[in-house]
Amino acid sequence: MKRFTQVVCTAWLLAGCASGGSVGVGGIGIGGGGGSSGVGVGLSFPVGGSTSTVDNGQADCDGDVYRVQPRYPEQAAAQKYSGRVTVSFNVKLNGRATDYQAAGDKPFFEETKRAVLRSCWPAGVHQNLVVSYQNGTTATWIENSLSAKP
To answer: How many angstroms separate the CA atoms of 26 and 31, rounded?
Structure first.
């Protein structure tokens, strides 16, 4: 999608210059002369990766690495229900999780996924982790060395 957007923006830029209009791109203006129409085309899009977002709407991590702590689901906490969720996912170069898979106790799936997607991970590193939910109060990240891929 990013490549498509770049191609479309480049086409608009060239069309604006060829028609004698003026085109502004990311704060840089390119003016065309001639013609009495005075028509201009304006484009604005981010340059570079610092403001781009990924599929889940989260901004790139910009090198930050952190884990969001999962919240104990209210219904499971009320029943003092304990369980575990094993997760496996790849990490994109922007530090965000992709190809997410989970196994374990289903009452904890949604909250575990939310925490994984909101966290920033070491770029390009496959992750295998377990989240342990205990006694209706604590959720803990556990390294899952048994299933780690080399």
So the answer is: 14
